[in-house]
Amino acid sequence: MAPVHGVGRAAAFAAAAEDVVDDLAAGHGYEAAVVSRMTDRTWTGLAARSGGRATSVGRVLPVEHTACHHLLVDHWPVVERDLHQHADPALRSVAERYGVSAYGGAALLGPDGRRLGSVYGYSSDARDDVDADRFATRLAVAAADLGRRLTSALEAAADERRAAHDRARASADGVTGLPDRRGWGLFLQEEGVRAGRLGEDMSVVLLDVGLVRTVRGVRRAGDVLREALGDLGVSRVSGRQFGVVAGGPGDADPAEVAATAQAALRAAGYTATSGWALRDPLEGAVGTWWRAEDALLRVRAATAAG
Question: Which 3 state secondary structure label does DSSP give 273?
Fold first, then answer.
């Protein structure tokens, strides 16, 4: 399948991650190999190869519940024979919870040393047949390459998002000049693909501007939203509804985006309401859109009920 426009660096990282897990799973003695994205809050599986174990792709965990969080504290690879026997009770708890014994991993680091993710192999039983030095060397090479690729993709994301929104304007609303429902759908697809490949939070925020009787009023609503939300691309989803793709908690938080946009619209005289949804890693971006629609409908119903 041809790559979606605007996600070139994310696609390059995703392809490299797939190659790495193929290599690690092929002959290094572990049952499974994984590449993950790690933030201060969450761990997300991005690529995995496994013989008979449940796949980790798309799975999201609190980062403190993972062996990667506790073991990968600097740039050195770590190889452990059996986490069940580890001196750290937090790691013994991880081993018990997820059925992990043997583990070998390395952190994907940004240029400032911040941990962005991990690459690792693991097995459900202790392993004495793993060549720890050889595996650690392979991990170090893979982690350095994936760290550079992930950093590049994350740095490019904002520019690629703006370019995707510009492309979406090819199907523009004649009143506001913003992407129309079709353009919005294309934009949402690109953002969903990018978020999935990079393990990034993504949310959909919908704004209902209320009853607007004139073309001038609709155009002004679009202008108000553009001014209030800056770089966050706004689209006109339907007659009285506008859409925005935002991030997650702590990064273009959807609740904050919704509150900011709604306050700006109300200050301009619109009876605005809003609803939003955070993307589930296992759903498509359209599913997030539907859930945001449901949230908006519930808010509108509650508002109408007084």
Answer: strand
The per-residue pLDDT for 4 is 43
Contacts (Cβ under 8 Å, ≥6 apart) of 2: none
Per-residue model confidence as pLDDT tens digits over 4-29: 444 688 899 999 999 999 988 877 77
Tokens of residue 298, six digits: 């519930």
- Whole-number Å distance between alpha carbons of 206 and 198: 24
The pTM (predicted TM-score) of the whole model is 0.80
The CA-CA-CA angle for residues 190, 196, 198, to 5°, reads 100
- Taking each continuous run of H as one helix and of E as one strand, the counts in the chain are 8, 10
Query: Tokens standing for 28?
Result: 């290094």
CA separation for the pair 236, 222 (Å, rounded): 8
* Count of other CB atoms within 10 angstroms of residue 215: 11
What domains are there in the chain, each with its CATH number? Answer: 8-155 (3.30.450.40), 169-304 (3.30.70.270)
Give percent above pLDDT 90 in the chain: 62
